[in-house]
Amino acid sequence: PCPRHIEADTNNMAERRRHRKRIQEVGEPTKEEKAVAKYLRFNCPTKSTNMMGQRVDYFIASKAVDCLLDSKWAKSKKGEEVLFTTRDSVVDYCNRLLKKQFFHRALKVVKMKPEKDTKKEKEKGKTDSGKEDEKKSKKELVKEERNKKEKEKKKDTDKDESKKDDAPGTPKKKKETKRRFKLEPHEDQIFLDGSELYVWIYDPVHFKTFAMGLILVIAVIAATLFPLWPAEMRVGVYYLSVAAGCFVASILFLAVARCILFLVIWLLTGGRHHFWFLPNLTADVGFIDSFRPLYTHEYKGPKTDSKKDDEKLESEKQQKSDSEEKSDNEKDRTETVGSYEADGSGVERHSDTESDRREEDGSQHSNGNGNDFEMITKEELEQH
Question: Model pTM greater than 0.70?
Fold first, then answer.
């Protein structure tokens, strides 16, 4: 054997001896301490992470204290003393549990990127950006400007929303930033009330897992003793097994048939119609949710057809608007012509009256001068 393996074995043996000595010095846990630790293990909220290459569960000290203050040991009963009265009493009791190796204190170490790597990444980004700027054409620059304008618009809208959120009466939203961290064993193994982290060592078997295991063992034994069952029970089990087999076969048939139906519709429509019967049948959902909805249909036709239809609709609308404008113009023209005709008739009538007046004036003027000849009868001459 190698000397390294010998050293490792000796170290492990030394750690085991130390652990035994600590247990002997502190004493074995009592039934009450085991009950309290078990209650805390299954009722206190825990989270899981990796520590020293192993998956562990840890809890926060303040939540453990709150959990024990809400337990039955913090409530008074007849003939029994209250175990937990204040937070300090819970902290003292948890220190006892820590010493008896139910859990241990851990240190939270946040992972940070080294500065050298960040500088190198920045320098690489600068060199790459310089090369890309040289290769970019005018079209790409125009696209970038458009994108910048769109981003500015989005920023303005976000600012407006933030102003609304800052208004009185509106709840403020905090941005959650998750950071990676790891746990390491802490040097000072003391229980403190606060945000300290403690990793569980005590891992008892839950009652549910114990009951499930017991039921499984009983079921296996009963299945092996099937030939000894009564005839009626064997016939009932036979019919149940046939019904279960038919149900499974029907689900498999539906899974294959829905795929065939989808392919047929997809081929006949040229990939435009996507029809799924029982779309959630093979999805990771519950039994009832796998049969709802009954079907889904999506139209994924080419965009050119929709554009052509839109253009046709627009052209029809334009034609309708042009015809309406033409009809309106014709109506206006007829109205103007009618008004002009009415004005013309009035002018003609006015001219006729003026001509009549002129003829009467001319006759009077001729009669007054005596230069013009008039027809006179014989009777008028005899009278003269």
Answer: no
